[in-house]
Amino acid sequence: MGKGFFQVPVAVNEPVKSYAPGSPERKAVLTAYNTMFNSSTDIPMYINGKDVTTENTRKISPPHDHQHIVGQYHLAEILHIEEAISTALEARKEWSKMPWEQRAGIFLKAAELIAGPYRAKINAATMIAQSKTVHQAEIDAACELIDFLRFNVQFMTDIYCEQPDSTSDAWNRIEYRPLEGFTYAVTPFNFTAIAGNLPACMALMGNVVVWKPSDSQVYSAKIIMDVFREAGVPAGVINVVFGDPVMITNTVLASTDFSGLHFTGSTFIFKELWKQIGNNIHKYKTYPRIVGETGGKDFIIAHKTANSKQVATAITRGAFEFQGQKCSAASRAYISSNLWKDVKKYLLEDIKSLKMGSPENLSNFMTAVIHEGSFDKLATFIDQAKADANAEVIAGGGYDKSKGYFVEPTVIVVKDAKYTTMCTELFGPVITIFIYDDNDFEATLKLVDETSEYALTGAILATDRYAINQATKALENCAGNFYINDKPTGAVVGQQPFGGARASGTNDKAGSAQNLLRWVSPRMIKETFVTPIDYRYPFLEK
Ligand code: NAD
């Protein structure tokens, strides 16, 4: 502990840059994009502060131009995972004793490096290899990651300030110790910010980490590691490994020192990992912490008093930004029948105006979906909807993977409210809409609640306050992030802590103190000033 009660800078959200024509940020990001797109990068793993290469590599191609190669990354063998674990445990000896203000300094510096010298690069990497438009890259790879880093430092100090009461003869203190052992971060493709935050927030709290990024996010993961290195994260504190997720996970979970899983990704994988941890429970020295933020089937319900134009905009933005590949993306909507004619008109107009193509062309609103597996899955569901009598594709429905994995923004209208695309997470630019009778609002709320296994995000659009109140109550358990008169996406760190329950995760709210609390194990220290010298209590006297 340092010699003073230090105050950290008050966390503020990073302003989103516009990338308007003529702006310096537009020029910088396009220059970085072109340089990186037209060169080939070699991405090693990063273990114990060293770049690690192997004989086994995999190519990186942009989803919007899958024959073009922008680099390669190196794949782990078991010995690399074992080394990552042992070096993490070795690093823990020093890192767990590092004063908090030194840890804070590192991650605050990382935030400023991203805000400044690394901004164009991390955005360009996210545009190239995850096919985000510049705006989607900016709000994710730059702003949200900066926000996570800044706000977590503040939340850490808030946690440390939480102390029990003391009396004049006993002083009570709580130490928020890092977990004993090492932690494991497994991150998804769709948010560079999540990929950076999961290992960083555990390390900030004094833990050591083995981090396995998604195969589809390796390019921006490399930039994150460059930032962490330059910011001063010591060797062995965050170790990055790439490759076969099953081999890596089996090796990590077999270690007796495994102490926590910080996962974001799909529900099925998370449940499997939970099961595996359960099966191994007798091995571990401590009960591992398990945090998982997983899938969603996020809804919009429009009451008969909603504004049709607002409903259409919420659907267009909520369902199609980043090709619907946000865990919070609107993928099912329930529209009151009196609104449908207008909502449909506005929605079809919007969709007609959406441009799709490479993120390098900044006028494109949408680009490609992440990989062929996702493309094929979406094509199958779209074809099925075209063939099914109780479903109608009223917009989009086209797809083409000749150059990139492009899927048109697609709207399916169903007669059966429990049609498969109303329940299954597709993770692409497809929304399914059910039109309900104006008078069936209450029954429709029940339907929304019961239709999906997930409970991540959802939105009610209405002008009638009674209806808003009714929906807020009826939908209490089917969204961890609930929106009134807004789209169900776009949570901001420090403003809307994010996470869902049911099959959507453990709801530990990324970007909040609650999440950080999962990565510490409090130690209560009671110090008695005048220690008793006689065991007899007064009531024992005759
Ligand atoms: P995914 O489940 O395919 O992959 C997530 C991570 O798990 C990757 O690193 C992957 O390599 C790893 N993985 C895959 N199979 C594994 C296995 N058998 N053992 C161990 N690890 C394994 O998910 P994705 O496609 O990268 O991301 C999309 C999913 O993530 C969607 O379901 C989305 O809803 C969810 N997501 C949720 C949130 C949230 O906050 N709730 C945020 C982002 C994404």
Task: Describe the 3D structure.
- There is one protein chain.
- The two termini are 50 Å apart.
- This protein has helices at 24-37, 78-95, 100-115, 119-130, 134-161, 192-204, 218-231, 245-253, 267-279, 308-320, 337-353, 372-387, 420-423, 441-451, 465-474, 513-517, and strands at 41-43, 45-47, 50-52, 57-60, 71-74, 170-178, 182-186, 209-212, 238-240, 258-264, 289-293, 298-302, 330-336, 391-395, 399-400, 406-407, 410-414, 430-436, 454-455, 457-461, 481-484, 501-502, 520-528.
- It has 16 helices and 23 strands.
- The chain is globular and about 85 Å long.
- By secondary structure, it is an alpha/beta fold.
- The protein has 2 domains: 27-294 and 505-524, Aldehyde Dehydrogenase, Chain A, domain 1, CATH 3.40.605; 298-484, Aldehyde Dehydrogenase, Chain A, domain 2 (3-Layer(aba) Sandwich), CATH 3.40.309.
- Helix 15 (465-474) links the parallel strand 20 and strand 21 (481-484).
- The model has no long low-confidence stretch (mean pLDDT 98).
- The protein binds nicotinamide-adenine-dinucleotide (NAD).
- Nicotinamide-adenine-dinucleotide binds at residues 186-191, 194, 212, 214-215, 245-246, 249, 264-266, 269, 273, 293-296, 327, 425, 427, 456, 498-500, 504-505.
Brief summary of the model shown:
By secondary structure, this protein is of the alpha/beta class.
